[in-house]
Design a protein that fits this description.
heterodimer, A: 2 domains, B: about 200 residues, alpha/beta, Rossmann fold, Arc Repressor Mutant, subunit A, five-stranded parallel β-sheet
Chain lengths: ~240, ~200
């Protein structure tokens, strides 16, 4: 299948495709040819875009069979997209909405501050994942490959529980949910309907992307880490 | 945000499952909890454990399994059983169910039939209740939440149990569609339930 046909079928996949280092302008090349050129694992690529396209399609075991380093690499790219592209873009739109608000400025400022708070929380969450969770997953995988389990890793395995950070996802999701309702229901009527629509459109898409991201972390990466922990602990005995 | 009705489906083919799932997703408030293919051991026990509001059973599953399932669920109160039929389903089988969905019908007719069945379970009233305004008590509690009081502090000030405060908070969230404390603060400020100055002062 041609990659261009994939985009025709579901153009919302463009940011996902970008995360693999593949950018528009691929002409009439097939998925296979583009993946080969960019040194992307084609099985992983196809599974990820299918899962993103169709929420019913989520082959858990198949996804868990890919190495943790590959999953982490994808998740890191996703973070980068959120922090460097999406969040600043939405922030800019919300600022614009506040500037347009005139007499209702106070209410719009409240919404804008709420978004800033959300942004800070999301950024902190992303940083924690990148500093703790992802490197930990990769260290475990290397230990399994090489058979070398350092004392430091053993200590980390006992001290740190991978499950604890799942609760954080929830709070980040709830804030986004609130923001949508504030814009839909509680802000005074906007002076620019099109801008409000644009912001909501972005928020709904962002939410979908975040959910997909959390699904891969919670249902693929974390179970995988837990299985690796289990294997290493058993080996140690 | 609406009170949910839990649905369990007994259906062995993927295509029918997918179709039913799609159909149910069109109606707000219906949640498909579990799908069985009919060959599970102790099927009725498993279904009873879920305590569903609706059970949809394909009339084509094994007759003996179906009989024992229907009889055992009949003994449970509050479980509505729906038989999934087609033109070949004999009357003596379809008549076992209090409600029927005819799989040969079009989407509009199927949705109407489902709405009628759900209507009897009173889900509409629940949905309407959600849209009522906040009560005086809920407004008082919302203000205190916005001022940064904990559930325990609110309970102490209003001489309520913490459990009651939590119930009020759940209802506030349900009615407003706002889940986080900072979201509630934004709502309270926008609607002038509290002043910025009050919040600043209460922080000190």
């Amino acid at each position: 299948m041609k990659l261009a046909d994939v985009v025709h079928h579901d153009h919302m996949l463009i940011p996902v495709i970008n995360r693999f280092g593949i950018h528009l302008g691929f002409g009439d090349k097939t998925i296979e040819a583009v993946c080969k050129e960019k040194q992307v694992n084609i099985g992983f690529f196809i599974t990820i875009i299918n899962a993103f396209h169709d929420s019913q399609y989520f082959p858990k075991q198949h996804l868990q069979s890919f190495p943790a380093s590959m999953l982490v690499d994808y998740l890191l790219k996703t973070h980068q997209y959120y922090i460097e592209d999406k969040i600043p873009e939405i922030e800019g739109l919300i600022r614009k909405m506040t500037v347009n608000a005139k007499s209702n400025e106070a209410s719009y400022l409240l919404a804008q501050n709420f978004f800033t708070e959300y942004k800070n929380e999301l950024t902190a969450h992303v940083e924690r994942e990148e500093k703790r969770v992802y490197p930990y997953a990769i260290t475990l995988e290397e230990a399994i490959k090489t058979g070398l389990v350092s004392d430091a890793l053993l200590q980390q395995m006992n001290a740190y529980s991978i499950t604890e950070y799942e609760a954080e996802h929830e709070n980040v999701e709830e804030k986004l949910f609130d923001l949508k309702n504030i814009i839909i229901k509680y802000l005074p009527a906007p002076s620019n309907d099109q801008l409000s629509f644009h912001i909501l459109d972005e928020l709904f898409m962002f939410e979908k992307d975040l959910n997909e991201h959390a699904r891969i972390e919670n249902m693929i990466l974390i179970p995988k880490v837990e299985a690796m922990e289990f294997e290493l602990k058993n080996r140690g005995q | 945000m609406i009170a949910h009705l839990t649905v369990v489906l007994v259906e062995s083919t993927y295509l029918m499952r997918a179709g039913i799932e799609k159909l149910l997703s069109e109606l707000p408030g219906l949640v498909l909890r579990e799908v069985f293919d009919g060959t599970e051991k102790n099927l009725s026990g498993k279904i009873k454990e879920i305590k569903p509001d609706l059970v949809i059973v394909n009339c084509q599953i094994d007759q003996q399994i179906q009989m024992s399932l229907v009889n055992s669920l009949n003994a449970e109160h509050g479980i509505v059983q729906i038989g999934l039929t087609n033109e070949t389903t004999p009357l003596n089988i379809s008549s076992r169910f209090s409600h029927i969905l005819n799989s040969n019908e079009g989407k509009f007719e199927l949705l109407e039939a489902l709405r009628k069945i759900i209507g009897k379970r009173g889900i509409k009233n629940e949905a309407e209740k959600d849209q009522q305004n906040l009560t005086a008590r809920e407004l008082t509690i919302l203000k205190k939440v916005a001022l940064g009081l904990t559930n325990q502090q609110i309970a102490d000030e209003l001489f309520l149990s913490i459990h009651t405060v939590m119930t009020h908070r759940k209802n506030i969230t349900k009615k407003l569609g706002i889940k986080t404390v900072s979201g509630l603060i934004v709502y309270a400020l926008m609607n002038k339930l509290v002043e910025m100055g009050e919040i600043e002062r209460s922080k000190k």
